[in-house]
Amino acid sequence: VPRNYDPALHPFEVAREYTRALNATKLERVFAKPFLSSLDGHRDGVNCMAKHPKSLSTVLSGACDGEVKIWNLTKRQCIRTIQAHEGFVRGMCARFCGTSFFTVGDDKTVKQWKMESPEYGEEEEPIHTILGKTVYTGIDHHWKEPVFATCGHQVDIWDEQRTSPKCSLTWGFDSISSVKFNPIETYLLGSCASDRNIVLYDMRKSTPLKKVILNMRTNTLCWNPMEAFIFTAANEDYNLYTFDMRFLESPVMVHMDHVSAVLDVDYSPTGKEFVSASFDKSIRIFPVDKGHSREVYHTKRMQHVITVKWTSDNKYILCGSDEMNIRLWKANASEKLGVV
């Protein structure tokens, strides 16, 4: 066999160079370490979480045994534990000023708690307790006024000073799983009912506005914090649907990739992406205008992910799952963070 020993004419030069170039572009992804830490301490599955509106390092979580924990993310430790409810903590939200937060549970109560820890010798007890007639499944606070909404058999709008709802909104008869205030047009709310509906309400008129019926039940929805009319719904049929409130006939985008029911969704503060949590033990990050996810996060130990939050500085993602852990991830997997 005649051989040419000139190295410039190597027969596999192109293939070799191509492989090298490909590896070089992949290296950032190869060395990406999206997982930062896990917050352990709950004694039951994490059912809901809430962000502090003023402090980036504070996050609240509620578990299935009625326990609420407040975490300091810089120290990665729990700074306060409250036995808030009998049975599940179904929902929680912080007040827009960050001085207090609300929880609802299976014991038919709505409780308002101080954000600060009690003084030495003080008892850990709520500021207010409202005893309702039915079990509440979710709660959300108005973004600018002392008003909050709970959902259960109907959507109730409450004034913080009163122990009975200002108004009750219904459309249909089924139980409502979650309710969310619009962060921009603050008097609008969206709710998801178990009869496969997504209903939009107007607080000023105290009437339902519009309704969209999907093929399967929607678990929760989240409003886009930058575009007032866009919201994304997490559905049982493994998909997420982004709707434009003005044209509810068909979704703007259907986001597919999960292989089981999607349980929670939260937008990034830029409004360009959102993160979804699913029963398939993973969380995925979707660009708003793409049908498929750009990122999927999971660990060996992570079980069904119930709740997920995107922190307000657009850097991290928190997810709470069945096996009692809250995990902290980078929103951009290969970003170099230095000292966190």
UniProtKB/TrEMBL annotation:
GO molecular function: ubiquitin-like ligase-substrate adaptor activity
The keyword Transferase appears for this protein: no
UniProt keyword list: Nucleus, Repeat, Ribonucleoprotein, Ribosome biogenesis, rRNA processing, Ubl conjugation pathway, WD repeat
InterPro entries listed in its UniProt record: WD40/YVTN_repeat-like_dom_sf, WD40_repeat_CS, WD40_repeat_dom_sf, WD40_rpt, WD_repeat_DCAF13/WDSOF1
Pathway connected to this protein: Protein modification; protein ubiquitination
Any GO BP annotation: maturation of SSU-rRNA from tricistronic rRNA transcript (SSU-rRNA, 5.8S rRNA, LSU-rRNA)
SMART domains xrefs: WD40 (SM00320)
WD repeats: 39-81, 255-296, 298-339
Main location: nucleus
GO cellular component terms attached to this protein's record: Cul4-RING E3 ubiquitin ligase complex; small-subunit processome
Cell location: Nucleus, Nucleolus
Similarity section: Belongs to the WD repeat DCAF13/WDSOF1 family.
Name of the protein described by the UniProt record: DDB1- and CUL4-associated factor 13
Gene: Dcaf13_1
